[in-house]
Each structure stands twice: as structure tokens, then as C-alpha cells.
Amidohydrolase 3 domain-containing protein
Amino acid sequence: MRLRNSLFVRMSISFLLITACKDTVQESATLLIFGGNIYTVDDTRPMVEAVAVKDNTILFAGSLAEAEQYKNDQTQLLDLNGKTMTPGLIEGHGHFMGLGYNELNLDLNNTTSYQEIVDAVAERVKTAAPGEWITGRGWHQSKWTEMPPETVNGFQTHDLLSAVSPENPVYLGHASGHAGFANAKAMEIAGLMELDKEGISKFEVEGGEVMRDAMGRPTGIFNELAQSLITKHIPENTPAKDIKAFEMAVAACHKNGITGFHDAGIGRETIALYEEMKAKDKMKIRLYSMLTGGDKELLNEWYKKGPMVDPDNLVTIRSVKLNCDGALGSRGAWLLEAYTDRPGHFGHETLPMNFVEETAIDGLQYGFQVCSHAIGDRANREVLDRYELAFTELPQLATDHRFRIEHAQHLHPEDIPRFAQLKVIPAMQAIHMSSDRAWAIDRLGEQRIKEGAYMWQSLLKSGIPIVNGTDVPVEPLNPIASFYASVTRKTLQGTPDEGYEPAEKMTREQALRSYTLDAAYGAFEEGIKGSITVGKLADFTIYNQDIMKVAEKELLNTEIAMTIFGGEIVYTK
């Protein structure tokens, strides 16, 4: 009996020793990063010396001495050599496949005159088959250095474009995506060159505009919903072209330090493509996708099955995108008072407000965030009103709704505090201020600009976070340009000296947070990304210089040196 008890004691001690040893064994890192300034966007420890990663998860963030305890012979060592690292940047509002197709089609973002557009199309005609559609996007008449001699409502007419492309239908999207420019061949295919007995084009579209000259003939400019008169005739993309565009979009994200992307409005074909790309292990980006509100059948299908929160953190669908007005550049933004440079014109309500209210109620009931495009001050007020009605009707479901307004560019001063009061998140693209402010004053006048345009600091001080981004392909994906605009409120040429309405600048800390943790919050994902915190996903962006300290005039010289996605280096300059 004594022997049996002695044996039992020895076995128990051995078991305890083995268990204790197991508890003290450190997990080993697959990647150890050190040697530069590492900004965590974690308030408990804003900067660290080193980060240890195990597979796709952050294992440790702190001192280098402590981090080395996680190193073994198989650990990959990454010395930053003085470079700077932050959490992986998140594009808070963009169009992912639009980004990819902008790489494939005519990219007109950098054109500075109508003639440059004509020349680009003439060059493409040389290699296009007769009858083949030529498409592109990115022109913006307000950014041109010179205007053509003939204009209607501030826009060019199609004659020069049609002259260089007589056998090819052409459709070129405005940079905003809210207008388009067609040549005569495209309008002929759409039946728009037919005139009535009075010699006037007979087509009208509610929520849009076919611009006409003094004789009633279409000029080639199609605003808002009128674009469908042309676009419905453009052949659909092929599956092979879709895959190529997807791959190019992923590569563009990596090159720009983007590891997460809020995809603002997708349909069933794109959802199927994303599922296919994930199944083929090509989903090297974290997509937070919004269902297009223009397809009621699609919405009803998703309401029945509920949100899809991806356990792999690659493709999540739990929000709906509504397009409630147009853009300022095309004078489609819906305003409370008429455009300063087009008296009597107030822009366009592109979606009935009762549908916004209906969708807000459905969103609360079925667990979907609602994200409404609203640029003009009236559109913003109307959307806030409809959200508030839904919150009042279903208060028990509105405790953590995180409904958003996409853009929120031009607000009536009385509506600025309502965002925080209603807990509605503004998703604002700082680069729009840099690109638009110089001419936006012509649309709105000085008072409206100064009291309610691009009100970042006022919104932040009210207690609501801002989600930043670029609205790519409306603007180039470059996050450095948007970061620069956030903290300077200048054009990319560095004007004016003090910035436009400088009191509304973000601090660098606020700007970085708007591209990381606050962007994650805007997608219910702050628990898994947005900061360099133990347990979160190992997504990082590395820069050639310290964006938090470098002189303002040097900020635009910042380059993305490396992008790490899920603990793997996916881009190196």
C-alpha cells in the first residue's frame, strides 16, 4: 500500500512538472519585425520597437528584447532599417472592380483638356475593330487647364470626339461616376439621335439629364440616371476580363499599402466572382462589400439569409449601399439652395427618400448596416432624417447600427452635430477636398463652402469617427495623397499656403486613425484589425519615411516600401 502511494505521488509530481513546463514554453513567431518606428494606433501603447507574428496573427508588440523571446531558427527576421510601419491601411470607400477596370480601360484621370481626351480616343481607335466599344473614365472638366470654345452648361460637346471615332461607339465616364460622355456612334446605337417633329431629342429620364444644345440636340453629356440610356448598350464584360481586372485591383492595393477595402456597391455577378477568387486562394485583400441598393430582389434575398461575416476575414457582406444624389462636379449633388453657377438648378434626388427609410428599417430588422451616398447638403439632411425615423421606430435594434453616410461633403451647419447625436458615421474622402475645393466654391459660393464643406475637425470634435479613403477610381488609390490632404487641406500642388479652411485640418494621428482603426470601426471590424494589437490580423504598411514626423512639404514624397498581408510580404518596392 505504501509503495502504491509512493508511486502515485511520483507520478503526480511528474505530471505537474510536465504541465508547468508546457505553460512556460513560449509560442514561436513566424515573423519578427524591428528596426524602425512602429506606430500601433493602440492607445495603450502607441509606439513599439518590435512586432512578433505567428502565421497571420499578431503574437506580440513591445520591446525588442521581449520580442526576441519569440524567435527560433525558423523565424523570419525583417529589419525595417529605419523605415516606418503602421497597421495595414484600409480604403474606406472605393469601387474595387472599378479600380481593376480603370487599369484595363482608358484611364483619363490625368487629362487636363478636352483635346487630351480626343487624342487618347483617337489612339485607341487605331487598334480597335470597327464597331468595338471604347470605354474609359476619369475626365473632369473643372480640372482642365483650358476649356473648349464650345460648351453647354460648362461641359464639352461631342463633335470633336465623334470626328475621331466615326465607326466606334465611345463612352467615357466622368471622374465622379455621376456623368458620362458619349460620341455620336454611341448615341446612334441608343436611338438618341432621332429627333421629334420640333427637332428635339425626345428622351427624358427621371433623376437624370440628357444635356442638349440650344437647338435641342444631345451634346453627348449624360448626367446621373440618364447614363443608363447609353450604358445599357455596352456589352457585358467577359469572365476572363473580370478575373484580370480583379487581379490588377489586388496588385494595385498592395502597391499602395492597402490591405482592407470597403467596396461601395456590388451586385450578384461580383459577389460570385469574389466567391470564386476566394475559393482559388486569390483573395489577398480583405473586402467589406456593400450590396447595391439598386437591386431590390438581391436585397430581399440577403435579408432572408442574413449577413455573411467571413470567418476567414476575407469577404464580408453585411451592409447596403444607397445612391441618394449625384456629384458636385456634374452639378448632380442635391442642394438646399440652387447652384451658384447654375441658377435654378438644385441637383438630383437619385433615389426616392421613402426607399431610404424603408431600407433603414429593413437594415435594422435584418442586421444590415446602411451606407448612403450623399454629397449635397439637402441629400445629407434627407438621409439623416430617414435614418432618425428608423431609429425612432426600432430603438431596441438601433443601439449599435453604425449606419454611414458616404462622402458627407457638403453639410448645412445645423446638420453637423446630428451625425454624433444619431451615431451616424461619415465616410469622407479627404482627397476630394484637395481635388475639388478650388472649383467647388464656384458651385456653392463662399458662405456654404466655409460653413459646411469638408467639415472633418468639426465632426471629429462632435464625437464621431471619420472613415477615410479615395473613392477610387474617382480619385487615384494613393493613400499618401489623401493623408496629405487630411492634414494640410491643400491641393497636391501645395496651395494655398495655409490650406483651405485650415481649422478643419486633421492632426496626423487623426488622419492615420481614419485610415486604420476608425475605418475598421466603420465595418464592425475593430476587434480584428486597424491597430497593431496582440490577437489582431498581421496586416501592416511600411513606408520609406516617417509620415508622422517628416516635414509637411516632404509628405508627398512618401513611398510604400512594403505591404504585409496576413503575415506574408505581398509587395516590396
